[in-house]
Amino acid sequence: MLTSRLIHPEILAALAASGHGGKILIADGNYPFSTRANAAARRVYLNLCPGKLSVTDVLEVLVGAIPIEAADVMVTDSGQEPEIYGDFRRLLPGLALTANPRADFYRKAHDPDVCLVIATGEQRLFANILLTIGVVPPG
Fold this sequence. Notes:
single chain, alpha/beta, RbsD-like fold
């Protein structure tokens, strides 16, 4: 029996198999999961229906489970910042968001270090975030 908030067996397995520098894509309901991410990455589909679960629901749990050293986000074609960035900053205090145009974000999501792709039912547009796993300090 687990006592942490993260209890999803496939997500736990993917995180346990990864390490420093591994990447996790948490994507909205519009993201092309099968074609715009590392084909070798484990895919976990949490998109039961529109609006369930959200990207921020998943991010909130991951923040308590792993160290995060970097976060890449997708920007709109106009360069306007999506509203979800405020939620990302609240959940990742002190961590800068690296903004990427859509094509650059898709390229980063194909990186061989992307070990986990989590599909959500998020309905907000441009609500995709690519996390880089940090280091667990000794002790």
